[in-house]
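hey can u check if this looks right to u? its 761 residues, i copy pasted from the old doc so theres a chance i mangled smth
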Amino acid sequence: MQILRSRQTFALLFALMATAACGDSTSPPPQPGSIATVGPAAFTGAAGDLIPQDLVVRVTDAGGTPVADAQVVFSIASGGGSLSAVSATTNLDGLASTRWTLGPTIGEQRVQATVGGVSSSATFVAVASAGAPAEISITAGNNQSGPAGAAVATRPTVLVVDRFDNPVPGVSVFFSVSAGGGSVTGSGATTDAAGLASVGSWQLGPAVGVNRLTALAVFNGVSGNPVEFTATATAGTAATLSARTSTTLSGVVGSSITPLPSVLLTDAAGNPVSGVQVTFAPSTGSTATGLVTATDAAGVATVSSWQLGTSASSYSLSASAAGVATPVVFTAAARAAAPANVSAVAGNGQSAPVGRPVDIEPSVRVTDGFGNPVSGVAVEFTVTGGDGFAFSRNQITNANGIATVGGWTLGDTPGANTLRAQVTGTGIAGNPVTFTATGTPGVPATITLQAGNAQTAQVGTAVPAPPSVIVRDARGNPVSGITVQFIVTAGGGSVTGGNAVTAANGIASVGRWTLGSTAGTQTLVARLQGLPDVVFTATATAGDAAAVQAVTVTSLGNVQANSLVATPPSVRVVDGSGNPIAGVTVTFTPDPAGTSGTVTGGTQVTNASGIATVTSWRVGTIANTTAGLRVFVDGFDQDGAEVVFSATVTAGVATFATVGPGAVLNQTNQINTGGAVTAAPSVRITDAFGNGVANATVVFTPEAGSGTVNAGAASASLLTNAIGVATLTNWTIPAGINQTYTLTATSSGVTSVVFTAVTAP
């Protein structure tokens, strides 16, 4: 304004001098012939903000000479807002100006400047965007209800607006469960062009009742922040039937079972379901009442009674409900009644060397009146002839009703021996039972473990002490000259001296037992015809680390920048025989460093299966690079042939849009006769790390009246190239003087880029 005043003063002095020189001659003042903008005529800003530049116009006469003292009228043509001056008088250079505060609405706004006597006007254009976030509110997904453990039908959604209620895009909103124990996906959301942000999904907690979810706009001074959604979790349909009482029961044959079998019916989240019929079905031989019973308010159904049959066996009672695939099965073991009969089972009429025990220990069976074996009955075995000896004379019948003497050693005199089995109680048929046996001269009777059991050695090596056994006759004396065969029965090992002959002390020893190649328990038996095998065990331990094997795939394919690989890399460490080695330290190292990202839990110890797995691997942020993870095993030199996992880093989701290479955002002094602008508009789409996003769709659209693109099209949809760039062939603008034309480039998920072209005066 100071410059304008200086120019006005100079012009006034010049006019006075001209008047003095010319005497009294006068000429009519020049008349306005045109009005045009001077300087910027297209602006951007937030709704309600003051445009920082003055709006300046120039008034000239028909010959293009500036017209002073012309009255210029400024007016809001669209969009609201206000002007610092609605009328201004031109200075000696024909200039007039005002200041423009934008209106409250987003989008295009216009101001026109007119002057008397001129039919055309000068137009200023501004594109108003939303201001700072001012308020957050719920738009969808509140006060819902659904089955516990399931996702609500409508995704909770919030709206963020500025102080004029314009939707604000790009605001971060964080959704979090505040009550009910549910979960969400997509907890971190960003408002879209409509100012809306939604959670990915909200899964209600497992319990029936109120669930709450909060949405917090990550911006200070937002009214209503945070907002809270509520949802009611209800019980779902019947999904699981489970036992409420023990499923393993017992009772005397013919008796009723207590406590009564009871089941609980719940939905998928474990909530009780009432009013559903449960059907109980007893197995053959048993009977039940109350076979169809509805679940009560607590989801419980109980059979009225269940009576066992007369056979001492296992009975079952199944409980099933409509919609539940797996029934609940109760089992009951029926015990025998009181003893009624006793009879010999085994061990009668034997022969054995004198002074030695019989091969088969005499045994009896006790049964009830239904023929069921009776357990827990006391039986006393007493030698009644032959001067022998009975071991463990007082026995109790087992689950099969059988009681067996601990051992019966015949007397020293060949001939008849007798043993009596007496059952405690009265009225028992067959009581007592008498066994007979004949004493014969002694022969080898036992083979027992002498030494070399339970040893440990590495796979493929011999145990320290050769296994040995001792052979005795019926009197317990060592027997020499007996061939004992040693045979590997598990583990794949081998022996030398497998056919060994007992020495004078009755001992036979294998020459050497070499363990097989598989880590774990290995067995060797010593066999003598007619006697039980003697079993030796040895533990084969794994050898030294000999190989590292990839458990998961090594080529992980494409992984977005700064993302975790889907399957954490895993390796197995084995010895030369392929046995897994536990307790080995394995280090997972990014290679090359820097571009390969970071690992969590990079140092691991192999488990019992020899496996070590990295906790997680997050690749680097540079697209089109190969991220590597090299595996090193402590104490094992792999000679540079380490297992290497690799992934190709790709660009992430489109995040930013910028002016492309060679393009100009605001071009001035373009040809006013119409034609292609000097620099064709170009846009580059990148992810959050500046990587170009290929194959993203970019739509170039000229504003109405702002020309065409790519040979006369109203708009052009292009795909970005390998570095994320999409470039128009051309943008052809109409003819005009001092005209501003606008073209907008849009792409999903990013802020639009607006190009302008101003024709030359």
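The longest strand covers residues 107-115.
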